[in-house]
Amino acid sequence: MRTILDSELAGFAEYLLANSLSREQHAKFYVYWVRRLARESKDWPDESWDIHLQRYVDLLSEDSQVQDWQVRQAERAVRLYYHNYCDGADGPRARAPAAVNEQNEVNRQDVLSTVREQLRVRHYSYRTEQTYLAWIDRFLQFGADRRDGGESGTLVRLSRQTPKRLPGMAGG
Which of 77, 78, 116, 121 allows an S-S link to 30, with CB 3.0 to 4.6 Å? Predict the structure, then answer.
């Protein structure tokens, strides 16, 4: 496990907030727990992050000043940092490429995999995940069918035009 940099922790705090993984007032505590892990583990043997996590949780559990809920919060913070933010690797994950290309088209598989990842990060149930993905896939297929005249493709053109008045809207 490599050294955790303060610049990465600032990015981690932003990641937590941007993905609604933590309330704004709790993000600083998540960063604190990861920073404390970095400080505590600097002399530990070079092992994987999950082994360090278990050792860290055991260390916190033995500390009389750390309450049980804080141990759980620290474990969640470290898991979010390494599993989600670093994608299980030694460093922060690379940002995903933009879903929309220059021709204003999206790749259906990229969209579905991104949505699947975000639903899993937020711990949605498997059935909810499948339902949302089916809805999104049908919507993207509908857009592809309208553009291609029924031809099934992986790229879907998005329209930037929006109606001035939608059915059922008051006014106008």
Answer: 77
Q: Would you say residue 152 has pLDDT above 60?
A: no
Which of 159, 151, 113, 104 has the alpha carbon at shortest distance from 132?
Answer: 113
Give the tens place of pLDDT for each residue, 124-137: 888 998 999 999 88
Of 53, 85, 117, the domain-final residue? 85
In-domain check, residue 166? no
Structure-derived torsion over alpha carbons of residues 66, 68, 71, 77, reported in degrees to the nearest 10: -120
Q: Which own/partner contact pairs does 45-49 have at CB distance under 8 Å and 24+ positions apart?
A: 46/1, 47/1, 48/1, 49/1, 49/78, 49/82, 49/86, 49/88
Tokens 């937020």: give the residue: 122
Number of independent structural domains in the chain = 2
- The pLDDT confidence band at residue 145, using thresholds 50, 70 and 90, is low
- Whole-angstrom distance, CA of residue 56 vs CA of residue 129: 32
Query: Which run of H or of E encompasses 155?
Result: strand 155-157
The tens digit of pLDDT for each residue in 94-123 reads 445 545 666 667 778 888 888 888 888 778
> Which residues span the domain enclosing 80?
6-85
